[in-house]
Structures are given as structure tokens and as C-alpha cells.
Amino acid sequence: MPGPAQFWVDALPALLRGALLTLQVSALAITLAAAVGVGVAAARTAPLAPLRWLGAAYVEVFRNTPLLVQIFFVFFGLPRVGLRLSPFQSGLLALSLYTAAYNAEVFRAGLEAVPRGLREAAAALGLSGWQRFRHVVLPVAVRISLPALGNNFVALVKNSSLVSAIGMVELTFVARDLEAWTFRSFEVYGMATLLYLALVLLLVWALRNVESRALAYLRVRER
Amino acid sequence: MRWTVVVANLPYLLEGLQGTVLLGLLVMALGTVLGFAVGLARLGRGVVYAAATAFVELFRDTPLIMQIFFIFFGLPAVGIRLNAFVAASVAMTFFAAANTAEIVRGAIQSLPRGQWEAARSLGLSSAQTLRWVILPQALRRTLPPLMGLFTTLLKDTSLAAIVNVFELTTAGRRVVERTLASFEIWLVVAALYFLLCYPLSVATQRLERRLVAEVP
Amino acid sequence: MSRTDPIILLQGVHKWFGRLHVLRGIDLEVWPGEVVVICGPSGSGKSTLIRCINRLERHDRGRIVVDGIELTDDLRHVDAVRREVGMVFQQFNLFPHLTVLQNITLAPVLVRKWPREQAERVARELLERVGIPEKADSYPSQLSGGQQQRVAIARALAMQPKIMLFDEPTSALDPEMIQEVLDVMRDLARRGMTMVVVTHEMGFAREVADRIVFMDEGAIVEVAPPDTFFTRPRHERTRAFLSKILR
User: Fold this and answer.
1) What structural domains and CATH numbers belong to chain B?
2) ipTM of the complex
3) Least CB–CB distance from C110: residue in A127, A139, A220
4) Contact A219/C89, CB-based, under 8 Å?
5) How do residues B3-23 score in pLDDT, each as one tens digit?
């Protein structure tokens, strides 16, 4: 059995690469989730009742079933109806659809939080409905939503650990793999846990920074 | 679609569902008690505060599956050998506790500072203020998020399947292995979780609306 | 429309909020260049009244004609009216994600289709006129309440409206900032703008208004020029109101 130093020399780079893969898949998934989330939020506020119902159903289904089961359904279940996706594709799809449901709620809340007075001022200036939405309502709603979206991103990074269950390579998968041939479960899982902790704390710090910079001027003066 | 397979295995899946609910209740009960203690500890200072904060950060900022792996696979190396059920339960309890602590802290902080100030200026000590003024009010505000946490925990019990603890997802896996009806079975498993969690979500939203309406 | 036609005409206007009868048969004419101040206790319907003029509220019965255009459900009429009517709100309602300059140029560029340079030129002139040209590139949250309201006035003026509506423009301001806003409004009146102002600032009304309209419980109780309104009010309710707000 190699000595402790040798173990860390081998293990740490592998784990760090796993952490990088976790970040990459999370970044990809959050982008897809944002796009789908906007679509679902739009459906939920659409004038057509069937669309509203579909949007609401999407959110309720994806938020009230476990992510792991969704992942299993995509990877194991869909091939039986002809859609065979790789572990990477399955994991990405499941993560994105799951997070999109939470994003849709964030966008909906953000739109509702736009103060009525701003919409009225835009209307009083003569802007059309579409102009009001594009130039006033949407930009303000997006900025209001940013903190909650950031939280969803952090949750996504943690949730990405589940895709290891179908063989997709990221930090958890690398950890399990390492543990399998080094048997140093304590060190490997301990280190992987700490890496996740570091990732999350770093992300939270970075997001807080971006938020305070982007939103500093947005504070509406309270009277 | 082999729906007959589903019907034939439904009793087994329902047993799994029972396992899910029992595990969820156990973890929620233990976790909230521990969580309240940790949450109150975070109102203090020094070592107590630091330890409580470290606990909360560790179990909120890391994936639950990693926590399960560490406790189940990693601890034996330092002599703590737990079976899968206990390991998963311990991890989920700590996870629940950390989240409960945050909910408690949030509820206490959401009360207007004026409540503290009025109580203290009347001569009550910190402990008395907490016991008679702050906590009674804060407790009501913890109810909707705690219900949300319970719903989340019910879903997260699915992770115990990865270490073969018997609950709904494990049951689903075993049935799929036997019958290969992966599409039908996973769909039904998802539906069972939905039937469990959706009513809870609706009840949580209703409770939230009622509480918001009452608080000035 | 001849020069002696009223620029705002309300005939038999009623409005209900659910069961609440908020406007009870309002008849009012405003002539070009006039400054009309509307006052009255809270709940009298004064805000609702002016918000009906630019269709932020929809009247249920009666006619409202603004600048020759009748206000109906036809969106083209509504848009046409809003282009000619500017509004200043109690809560300013500046767009927080845009700079002061962008706030002012947004509507002229999008609605009147002006080129950006023209809009910016006009915007800077207006900022000069309301006294804060140096704030063009600041964000609303960096300005005081009085400055924000002056920007709001400039924003409405940038559309070159024929009528300006003011809905309690100084009610949300700290006392020391009220005068700077009233000064801008006074200047506007001097230049001949048609103004309808809902306010509690009786000093301003006495100085600047051509007519004062007193409303109570959804109806117009009394209309008079300032000298008679304050010294010889005809109705008991007017007298009661005046005794409460004037010391």
C-alpha cells in the first residue's frame, strides 16, 4: 500500500478534476434550466388557460418528485420508448429540467415583484404593452430574481452529485472510483466533501459580490 | 407497455413507500429537535456559536449523498461501523438539523427589532426575552418552511437507495431489475412520490398564505 | 377643436370600485393653459379622477374627452391621449435600472421615434430647467427625493405633452425638499402649461391656480378661483375642510 503522501499526490488532482467537471456540468445545466424556466414562467402567465395549466403542472411534477427518480427515469426508462441518452446527456437533461421548475417559480415571483408604479409610469409615458415589458418590467424583474437564481445555481451544484449514480463523471463519481481502488474511504470521501464545501462557499461569495455590484443602484427608495 | 407488471408489483412498491414515510418521519423528528438546539446555539457567542455555525455550514453546503457515503463508507476506517440504515438516517438527521437551524434563525431574525428592544427596556433578560417574547412569535413563522423541509426530506430519502436501504426507490430498483419494465416502474414510482409530496406542498402554500395574512 | 374648446372635458363621469361608488357624476372642464388644483379629504376620489384622464383607471359611465380625443376602450385613442398627457406620481416611479438621462429619453425614442441625439439634447435641456443637469448619468437611487421628483417631471415633459397631471407630487417628500419641486411646477405654470394638480399644498394653490376644485365623497362640491375659494367658500363642507388644513 503506497504511503500517505503518495496517496494524496495521486488522489488530489483526480478529485480536483472531478470538481472542475462538476462546475462545468452545473454551468451547462443552469443555462439550459434558465432558458426552460423562462419558457415555463411565460406559459404560467400566458393568456391561454391550457398553457397556464401546463406550466403549473410542469412545476408541480418536477418539484414534487425526487431528482434521483427523475434521473433514473431518463436514463433507464426512456430507452424503452426509443430515446437512448448517454449518462452525460441523461444527467444534464434531468438536472436542467428539475432546476428549470424552481427557476420558473423564481421568475414568476420576480415579475410579480415589479412595483405597480413602474408599470403605470411606463404606461403614462405612452409606451405600448410590449415596450413596457421589454424596457421596464423584464429588466427590473431579472434583477430582482438574481439572488434567488444564484441560490438555485448553488443547489444545482450540490444536486449534480446524484448523476454519479448513472455513471456520469463528476466529483462524486471520481470519489467513488478512487475509493474503489485505494480503499481509503475516510480520506477520499472526507476530501471530496471538503471540496464540495469549498466550491459552495466560493460560489456563494462570488454570487454575493456580483449581486451587490449589479443591484446596488436598484434599491428603490423607501418612504 | 406492460402495465400488468406494475399492478403485480404495486404491493411491493407500496411497502417501499411505507419505508419512505417512516424514514422521513424519523429523520424529521430527530432533525428538528437537534436543529432547534443548534439554531438557538447560533444566537450565542464564542465556541458554541462557532461550533453550531460549522455544523450548519458543513451539512447545508455539501451534497447529502456525500454525507451518506462519508458516514457509511468512511467512518469504519476510524472504527465507527454503522449499518446502511443507521448511516443514512444519521446523515439525513444532521442534514435536517442544519436546515432547521437556518429556518429557526431566519424566523427569529424576521421579527422586528422593536420586539427585542421593548422587552429589554422593560427589564427582561436575554433569556426571558427569548422565552416569553421572541420564540412564541418566531415559532409560528417556522411552520411553513419546516413543512417544506419535510417534503424535501421525503424526496431525499430516495438517496438511501444508493446504499440499499429499503424504501420506495430501492423497491423500484429491485422491481426493474427483476422485470426490466423500467419505463413503467419508474413512472409509477415518481407518481407515488408525487401523491405523497404534492398534498404537502399545497398545504404548505395554504399555511404560508394564512400566516402572512395574519402578521401585520 | 377651436381655441375656446376645453382641452379636458368630463361629462357625467361615474366610477365604481366593486360596490364603492368612487366618482359620482363628475362634470369638469379644463381650458388650455389653465392650472386647476383639486383638493379634498382622502377617499374623496381626487386621485381616481385624474387617473381616469390618462386611462390609468377606466371610467364606468359618462364621457371623457382629452385634446379632442374621446377616451374609450379603443387602444389607439388611449395611446394617443397618453402621448399628449404627462403624469407625475406621488412615488416618483423612476425606472431604477436606468440612469436619469435614460429615464428621460426612453419614451421619446420609443414612442415619438426621435433619434437618440435629439432625445438626449432635449433631456439635458430639461434637466437644466429643473436644476440638476449634473445628475444626468446618476441612477435614481443616488438622488434625493426632491431630485427624483424633478427628474420625474423632466421625464414627463420630454414627451412635450399638452397637459400635465400631478398626483400629490410632494406628499412623499421630506419637508425641506417640497419647495424645489413646487418651484419647478410654478415655472411650468408661468410658461403656460395646462396643469391639473392634486395636492394639499394650499400655498401653491393660492399662488398658482386659476381655479380650485374641492371634492368630497366622490363629487365636486365647489369650484372657485383662489381668492374666493379661500375667503368666501360657499359650502359648509368646503369651510369644514379649509378650517382643518389651514391654521
Assistant:
1) 3-214 (1.10.3720.10)
2) 0.90
3) A127
4) no
5) 888 889 999 999 999 999 999
